[in-house]
Write a structure and sequence with these properties.
Shape: globular
Radius of gyration: 18 Å
Helix content: 25-40%
Distance between the termini: 38 Å
Strand order of the largest sheet: 6-7-8-3-9-10
Protein name: Spermidine/putrescine ABC transporter ATPase
Bound molecules: adenosine-5'-diphosphate, magnesium ion
Keywords: ATP-binding, Cell inner membrane, Cell membrane, Ion transport, Iron, Iron transport, Membrane, Nucleotide-binding, Translocase, Transport
Number of strands: 10
Length: 243
């Protein structure tokens, strides 16, 4: 872990359920300011990998490092809130009983005025300042997504983990939300691990694609390289619908 650019490192992670190995000695590194898409077909182990990185699940073997520090290995395991990471998972939706500002401020600690200023700033950045006192059910899917992004980034995490974050949005909205999300991530300089089963999404969002199959990463590279030089026939077929 000598490289200061490395914000997240998964080192030889394995995880089995009912003696079936769904993540198989997987290694991956994320650099500051880069979006890495973990891309692969449904059931290949993407969400399990992300949950292990987050600390909501625990690997059977291997270790997780955040910004050079070990957050989980055979002997110790930091809980999600102590890892310096932000999460955008479907099961981490906005709290329905809290308004937008309270949602964004939820993970913040410290001085009340400093917190309020940070919430305001994050809402401005996602263009949701007018909705500070609205409740989640009063917002559209795209608006909820922007608030969720503001909430995830409010504590300035070194790493943001996103599991199929755009899958709930209709096609019309999706491109716009993807683009504004990318802008925001670039400004914040956060290292992002984004899980998706859609090659097109990975091509659009990623600086680096990690192609996953049956618990393993079979190829890592820039979108252009993966698209034009797929590692094998299966990888080529997976990208064949992208144009
Ligand atoms: P993906 O996100 O790529 O679709 P998952 O990581 O969700 O894949 O799942 C990989 C495999 O592990 C699937 O076969 C799934 O059924 C299985 N799996 C995931 N979580 C559990 C669990 N808690 N208990 C048993 N099997 C699980
Ligand atoms: Mg999944």
């Amino acid at each position: 872990m000598a490289d200061p650019e490395t914000q997240l490192e998964l080192r030889q992670i394995s995880r089995s359920f009912d003696r079936r190995r769904v993540v198989d000695e997987l290694s991956l590194t994320l650099n500051a300011g880069e979006v890495t898409c973990l891309l692969g077909p449904s059931g290949c182990g993407k969400s399990t990998t992300l949950r292990i990185a987050a600390g909501v699940d625990q690997q059977d073997a291997g270790a997780v490092y955040v910004a050079g520090g070990c957050v989980s290995d055979a002997t110790h395991h930091l809980p999600p809130e102590k890892r310096g990471i932000g999460l955008m998972f479907q099961d981490f939706a906005l709290f329905p009983h809290l308004d937008v500002a309270q949602n964004v401020g939820f993970g913040l600690t410290g001085d009340k005025n400093v917190k309020a200023a940070r919430v305001r700033r994050m809402l401005e950045r996602v263009g949701m300042q007018k909705f500070a006192s609205a409740y989640p059910h009063q917002l559209s899917g795209g608006e909820q997504q922007r608030v969720a992004l503001a909430r995830a980034l409010a504590p300035s995490p070194k790493v943001l983990l996103m599991d199929e974050p755009f899958s709930g949005l209709d096609n019309r909205l999706r491109d716009a939300v993807r683009d504004s999300t990318l802008d925001m991530l670039r400004e914040e300089g956060t290292a992002v691990l984004l899980v998706t089963h859609e090659p097109e999404e990975a091509m659009r969002m990623a600086d680096q694609i990690a192609l996953m199959r049956r618990g393993r990463i079979v190829q890592v590279g820039a979108p252009y390289n993966i698209y034009h030089a797929p590692v094998d026939r299966k990888a080529a077929e997976f990208f064949s619908d992208v144009n």
